[in-house]
């Protein structure tokens, strides 16, 4: 009888080791529910005579995150006509920087004027030891009576007058060490008025702002034209792009000059009485644009005869009289009744008002008192 072959012994089943459970953070919904219990699958029984594999240690269930309580917004109602005194916050530390750092200076490199003195050849001194500074995100207003030297000061800041004493530092460099094209890349100028011999269109005038960035005898590129068009759209004059500049209103002409300065892509804008000869509506439009430029990181220096405008859009004010800076600082500190009365040789009262129904706005206004009025006047 043939020998019987030995049957092969079955191999022991290999039990899969259960992986340790990973830490899971459960973010509960508004009504938290307990997470499902996770258990490893049962392993098949090992054959007889084989040791039982070790069982994995049970993992602790993750703790459910506590729901964050929702904060309800608080609403404060102020009755209309309520008189409120508010100290405006200096906006230097919270100035917004432009997304393009190639032409916007940092707060560490402001426009600094120290001990500036200037006189025309053979004439009396117009500026005497003028010192102040302006940085990106700031709007500095220069107030003073006619003939106090405001326009001359702007011409010195532009590098037109270079025979001055003292120093003007721009982005850490002496202004007189820069060429005119280098100054134009850093400072843009908006005059009170402009005279054009040829009938340039509004777009042509704005496109002239790209001149400092062109090579000699160069022509504007497609990118230059796009920048000019974007500047027109920003001031709301795109619909007048093809109209001759001399056929638009005074307010629209002033906005076109501001658009030309924007197309120049400079760090600083100098505006010589930008609201002169404008009606109330166009004055508000210009002031809104100036405030928006400061929020975008531009440094703005403007001259004005209206102290109320300084209260609305300016972070600092310089009072200029007889070529001297009488005071410099935030408008709420500098523009007092005593200082304005001495500046203009006329009784001026500074009042705090609150206007609005659903949204109350608090501001200050300057009220000059006529000499024939006999009402009592006292300084604030």
TrEMBL record:
Location of region: Disordered: 1-75
SMART domains in UniProt: AAA
Protein's name according to its UniProt entry: ABC transporter ATP-binding protein
Residue ranges constituting the ABC transporter domain according to the UniProt record: 111-347
One Pfam family in the UniProt entry: ABC_tran
Record lineage: Bacteria, Pseudomonadati, Thermomicrobiota, Thermomicrobia, Thermomicrobia incertae sedis
Keywords, ordered alphabetically: ATP-binding, Nucleotide-binding, Translocase, Transport
PROSITE patterns: ABC_TRANSPORTER_1, ABC_TRANSPORTER_2
Reported function: Part of the ABC transporter complex HmuTUV involved in hemin import. Responsible for energy coupling to the transport system.
Organism: Thermorudis sp
């Amino acid at each position: 009888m043939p020998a019987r072959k030995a049957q092969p012994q079955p191999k022991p089943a290999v039990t899969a080791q259960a992986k340790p459970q990973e830490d899971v953070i459960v973010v509960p919904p508004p009504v938290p529910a307990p997470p499902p219990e996770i258990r490893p699958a049962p392993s098949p029984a090992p054959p007889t005579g084989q040791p039982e594999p070790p069982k994995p240690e049970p993992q602790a269930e993750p703790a459910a995150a506590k729901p964050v309580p929702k904060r309800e917004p608080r609403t404060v109602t102020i009755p209309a006509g309520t008189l409120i005194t508010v100290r405006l916050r200096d906006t230097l530390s919270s100035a917004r920087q432009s997304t393009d750092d190639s032409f916007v200076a940092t707060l560490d490199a402001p426009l600094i004027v120290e001990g500036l003195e200037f006189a025309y050849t053979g004439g009396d001194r117009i500026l005497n030891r003028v010192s102040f500074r302006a940085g990106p995100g700031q709007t500095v207003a220069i107030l003073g009576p006619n003939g106090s030297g405001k326009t001359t000061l702007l011409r010195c800041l532009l590098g037109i007058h270079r025979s001055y004493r003292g120093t003007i530092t721009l982005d850490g460099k002496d202004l007189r060490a820069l060429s005119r094209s280098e100054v134009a890349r850093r400072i843009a100028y908006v005059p009170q008025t402009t005279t054009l011999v040829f009938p340039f269109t509004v777009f042509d005038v704005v496109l002239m702002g790209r001149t400092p960035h062109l090579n000699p005898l160069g022509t504007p590129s497609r990118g230059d034209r796009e920048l000019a068009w974007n500047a027109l759209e920003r001031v709301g004059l795109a619909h007048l792009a093809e109209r001759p500049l001399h056929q638009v209103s005074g307010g629209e002409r002033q906005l076109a000059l501001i658009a030309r300065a924007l197309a120049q892509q400079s760090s600083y804008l100098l505006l010589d009485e930008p609201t002169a000869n404008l009606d109330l509506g166009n004055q508000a439009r210009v002031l809104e644009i100036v405030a928006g430029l400061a929020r975008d990181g531009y440094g703005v220096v403007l001259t004005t005869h209206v102290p109320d405008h300084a209260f609305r859009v300016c972070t600092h004010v310089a009072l200029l009289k007889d070529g001297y800076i009488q005071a410099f600082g935030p408008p709420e500190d500098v523009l007092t009744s005593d200082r304005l009365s001495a500046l203009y040789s006329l009784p001026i009262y500074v009042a705090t008002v609150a206007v609005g129904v659903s949204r109350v706005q608090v501001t200050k206004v300057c009220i000059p008192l006529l000499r024939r009025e006999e009402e009592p006047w006292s300084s604030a």
